[in-house]
Amino acid sequence: MRLENKVAVITGGASGMGLATAMRFLEEGARVVIADYNAETGNAALIAADGAGYRGLASFIRTDVASEPDVEAMLQRALDEYDGLDIVFNNAGVGGAVGPLTETTVSDWDYTFDVLAKGVFLGIKHAARIMQSAGKGGSIINTASVAGLSGDGGPLVYSAAKAAVISLSKSAAVELAPDLIRVNAICPGFIATPLSAGTRPGADGEDLDPLRAAFAKSQPWPAHGTADHVAGAALFLASDDSEFVTGETILVDGGLTAAGPELSRKFPRVSSRNSKVSGVTKGSTGEANEIRRLD
Ligand SMILES: NC(=O)c1ccc[n+]([C@@H]2O[C@H](COP(=O)([O-])OP(=O)(O)OC[C@H]3O[C@@H](n4cnc5c(N)ncnc54)[C@H](O)[C@@H]3O)[C@@H](O)[C@H]2O)c1
């Protein structure tokens, strides 16, 4: 088991990627504090963990990650209940402000940044204090998004906040490296969860089916992204397997970002995979191209 004797706190742990990661960490031997704004889904997550055989190894604390006292209390829960803190997954999120930037209000901007960026800052700040004084190092993982990498990956304020998470992760990694505290970010692509579906909290069944079908066609990888895919990346970053990995941003996006301008879709002649010819073109050199047909 890769997380034997480790204690983890997971924000947004009641649903989607956070819940999948909580279950994966429990399977790998960790004790887990599930922190979430939604007490109903949080308690349901705890019942699910108990039912899966992890009674006493997981606990739930109602937390607003935008509140400093809440974040301190959530991390204190790990110390009180499990006598340590090795891993913090700052993952809670909402879609936040939507609509044209010309209509975006300051309060909608503030709410979005409070949850997505300030929440991560507070999680890093207080995790670092505890980990520094324990002197054993630790792993802090922050959920950003491919939306933070380009101009059309998500709503404007959400994307700006996720870009802040990527930057914050790198700066914190540099500052905390001497304490052996690693800080990394995960950028999920399109992942079928209640958040991306805009569906009822905690849903993981047929509510997500139409979204799964659409997502399966939205990136090079021919299947939809799942919360478990993100949990796998979080497990790598949480475990000692990633001991020398810090300040990294890991894409979990089925090749969405790698596809970039998607030339082969927009200009099929450029496509490598489906091309009927192979060889080399020599541009304006005056030398002849060397092209052979693939029959
Ligand atoms: N689903 C996607 O396609 C996708 C893509 C990229 C990034 N993300 C990010 O992944 C993370 C997890 O999202 P998900 O898709 O699993 O969504 P989800 O809605 O299934 O889970 C998010 C959880 O965060 C909790 N939460 C929201 N505000 C909170 C607050 N202020 N304090 C504490 N908890 C709060 C919610 O109650 C919920 O349980 C988010 O940060 C999201 O922005 C999602």
Describe this structure in words.
The protein contains 10 helices and 9 strands. It has 295 residues and is α/β, with parallel strands linked by helices. The chain folds into 2 domains: 7-260, NAD(P)-binding Rossmann-like Domain (Rossmann fold), CATH 3.40.50.720; 261-295, no CATH class. A 7-stranded parallel beta sheet has the order 3-2-1-4-5-6-7, with helices on both faces. Helix 4 (106-134) links the parallel strand 4 and strand 5 (138-143). Helix 1 crosses helix 8 (227-238). The longest helix is centred in the middle third of the chain and has 29 residues, at 106-134. The mean pLDDT is 95. It binds nicotinamide-adenine-dinucleotide. Nicotinamide-adenine-dinucleotide binds next to helix 1 and helix 6.
What is the strand and helix layout of this fold?
Elements: E1 7-11, H1 16-27, E2 31-36, H2 39-54, E3 58-62, H3 68-82, E4 87-90, H4 106-134, E5 138-143, H5 156-176, E6 181-188, H6 194-197, H7 209-216, H8 227-238, E7 249-252, H9 256-259, H10 263-266, E8 277-280, E9 290-293
Parallel strand pairs: 1-2, 1-4, 2-3, 4-5, 5-6, 6-7
Antiparallel strand pairs: 8-9
Helix pairs in contact: 1-8, 3-4, 4-5
The structure holds nicotinamide-adenine-dinucleotide.
Nicotinamide-adenine-dinucleotide (NAD) is lined by residues 11-12, 14-18, 36-38, 41, 63-66, 91-94, 115, 143, 145, 188, 190-191, 193-196, 227.
